[in-house]
Amino acid sequence: MGTELQQRHELAAFLGNVLHESDELKAGREYLMCADQKFVGGEMYCKPCDMSGFDWETFTCTGESLASEGRAFNGYCQSNLLPPDGCECDDVYEVSSDGEMAGFVKADKLYFGRGAIQLSWNYNYIKASVALTGHSQTFCQRPDWVATKEEYAWGAGLFYWMENVKNDKTCHQAVLMHNEFGQTLDIINGGLECPSDDHGWHGKAVQLRLNRYCRAATALGLDTLLSLDGCMDMDKKFVQCLKEGNCDACKVWEDKISLPDISTILTVEEGGATGNGPPTKKPTKKNNTMWRRCVPTLHILHSLVRVRTPAVQRQSVTMLPTHTDLMSSAADVSNDKAVECMNLVVSNEKLKCIQLQRHLGSWPKV
Asked: Residues near 328 by Cβ (< 8 Å), separated by ≥ 6?
């Protein structure tokens, strides 16, 4: 959908968010909920932790587990919802009160964030399950498949991008209809980041997301960025990030992107906003020839994610390429490493497999 330029803008916005949500394609599972993990007897177990008890150097929960000492844990469970409105869920308890498994719970009992754009909550898992597998109980029974199976890790992210609605629009619509990057963040995590606390983690998170978006836009040969207006104070975070030296990938646009009402942060004389237009230093387009050959189309991916819920019915696609090189130039987005392409394999009108081949190892790294 849209022109090739619009498709590149959407792919940059999508990848910028994915790189942030997945921590550069390293986090198949939400860190606080399951970075401290054990694989026992063919099952994954997680030690859910709060921010104060989590060691970001070792990625372990050095404090008490949220499920320790007989405490019930029901994070991301809206227990009053039953199928088809939500996966059935209830309080979860630690599998052992002592020994190595103290504080650990079964990963498949929890609906925390997983996948390319961290799918979370039992009501989102059941909708993604219907869309990607044709059955409501697939992810309800095995939510950890969204972290361990590539087709579901990417598919759930695409489903959320194309189908999750806030203020009557999806991320897909925010980009194509409103030329907005800010709105995509508002849809994904606006409650915490639009606006964000300047003194907390989420203020830093907005800056990290912006820098990753700028990297994706540069890799895809774009000359302008999308608007940031749809996320409150995102424009100020952009300038603050540049001023503090945390957004090196965005420096090429610092004099050209429209950033209203930020004179108290960075004046025009200091290098502030002077209006819209292409950057003074044009972003590299070293993979642009391959890009034109690949012609990425998120709407094709969307048509593969055939939503079967009554509220959102999609027509089946009768003519689709068996294999589509989605984005060769994505190699630039991940530290110039090798993301060569995503191959789509279509079978029985359902998304069968999305493979990401890269030299660093296959997605997701768990």
From this structure: 287, 290, 291, 293, 294, 340, 341
Q: What is the pLDDT along the chain (366 residues), one digit of tens a residue?
A: 789 999 999 999 999 999 999 999 999 999 999 999 999 999 999 999 999 999 999 999 999 999 999 899 999 999 999 999 999 999 999 999 999 999 999 999 999 999 999 999 999 999 999 999 999 999 999 999 999 999 999 999 999 999 999 999 999 999 999 999 999 999 999 999 999 887 778 889 999 999 999 999 999 999 999 999 999 999 999 999 999 999 999 998 877 676 654 444 443 334 333 233 333 333 333 332 222 222 334 443 444 333 333 332 222 222 222 222 333 333 333 333 223 323 332 223 223 323 332 222 334 332
DSSP per residue, 246-294: --GGGGGGTTTS---S-TTTS-GGGT----SS--SSPPP-TTHHHHHHH
The CATH code that applies to domain 1-27+120-366 is 1.10.530.10
Domain extents in the chain? 1-27+120-366, 30-112
Residue type, 338: A
pTM over 0.70: yes
